[in-house]
Amino acid sequence: RAMTEFARWQWDDAGQWRDFAEQHQAEMEASFQSRAPCLELAIPPFGTFRMDLKRMRQVTLRGRNPGYEREIRRQARRIEAGYFILGQEGEIFASDEAIDQIEDAAPLEALASLLGRIVEDPEDFSRRSANLSEGELADAFGACELAVDFLKERGFEEIEDGDDCFVVFLSEDTSGLSEALREVEARLAAVRRQQAKASSSGNAANPACSESGGEEDDSPANLVAECSCSSVPPPLPGGAAEAVASGAAAEGA
Q1: pLDDT tens, residue by residue, 200-218
Q2: In this predicted model, what pLDDT tens digit does every residue of 97-128 receive, in sequence order?
Q3: How far apart are CA 179 and CA 170, in angstroms?
Q4: pLDDT tens, 119-178?
Q5: Angle in degrees, CA 193, 99, 123, rounded to 5
Q6: What CATH number was assigned to the domain covering residues 3-80?
Q7: Cβ-contact 33, 26 below 8 angstroms
């Protein structure tokens, strides 16, 4: 049987393995397959890194903490060629990225709004901070730590001031936020499709009752109501009808 291999590249985030972005997955795998010892990756806004594919280490070249190293790894899976591997949304593997774990539309909409404001006018520094303890952001982010994790992964810093919590983007390089916004919008579209599908399945399982306009209500109460409104008196019981008929005949005689 012909076998094929699918690989995912990940980096160590204080003991938790996270996937590299899709565009970096392709670059790293291509270098690995060509037996290159290393490659350089620019990952805005964090900096430029050397990926040592022999020692499986990521080394910061430019950006925060030059010289800092962390582990990377390649996770591979071999499957039979032609085997159906695509998931519901067309993904080969389930992602462990924070953005892909969010199942509610509200925090995704808040993320899209925040990132969209910065991308629209990156020179306006008043748009680069948000108080997560007030208004709609408090409702959207209050029960969704994953949304804050996503912002921190994309270069935001979380700052606590008394009872308030802020996220602030301090880096001058905002080029990576456009990609972050596209990720959020893609995830939001996927969540909405899932919700629409679930709603559609629920309606199919519980069809609405048929309209009563074309059906007659023959309940006793309704029959009584119909009789009371009719201009023709209801028929008398058999014995009473005969008595009335006899009386009428006698009067006629």
Answers
A1: 776 665 554 444 444 444 4
A2: 778 888 889 999 999 999 999 999 988 988 99
A3: 17
A4: 999 889 889 988 888 888 888 887 788 888 889 888 899 898 888 889 999 888 887 888
A5: 110
A6: 3.30.720.50
A7: no
Distance (Å) of CA 133 to CA 69, 153, 165, 252: 35, 20, 6, 96
Domain(s) labelled CATH 3.30.720.50 in the chain stretch across 3-80
Contacts of residue 163, defined as CB under 8 A and 6 or more positions apart, other chains included, come to 133
From residue 125, give the alpha-carbon distance in Å to each of 67, 110, 117, 138, 187. 30, 18, 10, 21, 27
- The span from the CA of 157 to the CA of 46, in Å, is 12
Strand 57-63 versus strand 3-13 pairing type: unpaired
31 contacts 39 by C-beta, under 8 angstroms? yes
Asked whether the CA dihedral 141, 143, 147, 148 is positive or negative, the reply is positive
Portions of the chain given CATH number 1.20.58: 98-202
Q: Are 84 and 5 in contact (CB under 8 A)?
A: no
Please provide the CATH number assigned to the domain covering 98-202. Answer: 1.20.58
